[in-house]
Model the fold of this input.
Amino acid sequence: MSYIRKHPKVALVHDWLVSEGGAEQVLKCFHEIWPDAPIYTLVYNEKKAPAWTHGLDIRTTYIQDWPGGKTHHKFLLSFMPRAWEALDLTEYDLVVSSCASCCKGVITRPDAVHICYCHSPIRYVWDLYYDYLEGASAIKRAFMPAMIHKVRMWDFQAAQRVDCFVSNSDYVGRRISKFYRRESTTVYPGIRLPEGPVSEERGDYYFILSRFVGYKRVDLAIEACNKLGRKLIVAGSGGEEEQKLRAMAGPTVEFVGRVSEDQLNEYYSHAKAFLFPGIEDFGLTPLEAMAGGAPVLAYGEGGALETVVDGETGMFFHEQDADSLAACIKEFERRSFSAAACRARAEQFSTEVFKDRFADFCDRTLAGEIGE
Done:
């Protein structure tokens, strides 16, 4: 199927392009649907952005030229609303934003259609605000309440400018309804499936892939495997908790740092199970693990509830602590799981399925078949 849409003039909008993660995989799908559409973003760091963005028509806000703008943009939250509103998008008929922060606040023509693919309402402004406040320094705690209050009011108003919201999970859809008072349609993001069949033969290790930040709860996976004496391979790097996590690792826990796509597929294809102890809005890594034939042991909240099939492609634990995860691991080891069943589940969330569904949603919205 060709994903090129001939009738509307399209612009893509993305919060920032300074790293590679799940949101950037979604943006890549959007680019494949509309390959001629320019990408507007707050800042662009070519050295750290995904390689597929090199050479594309990427247009940034004026924050790009500020000292430290490309590397310390997250500290500039209070300046983001005005920067996004300064972009002139009046030439476009369709604006598609990929948003977990402020880019939904762009201003479009009255007759244009703005479809926001929402990865999450701004977490540190809404539901995780008090967690961030508690972990902030004394100086940050002094000015955060007033600053976040202003951003929160702007963010709500910005959400009213969007014509249609698309959520990446029903879990996020409920938060869009709660914080923005807007309805949304869920279109699950997709993963690129590895080639070849999966093997039913698994290795002797559990696996986790993550940035080392608090809400990912990598500490629970390490603590549980320490207690049980189970081999755990931890892939990933970066984040404020890396030193702490390395220090708590026992002799059965191995950190392998950043890994290539081929190495990652190798880990997935031989892991006994993938551990997912955090709460994610959706979570692509459990799907990637299942695509490699690995069952997923996940905390029973958030997007994992919409992808992992309990007892068939994995299991859930229901207290977010190491003892509950350890009990889940022991129960998992008493059961058997099919790598083929895990792969079959992942195939329902391929990038091709995502592109078809999202492009169809946009076409029907432009045709007036969908609208609030």
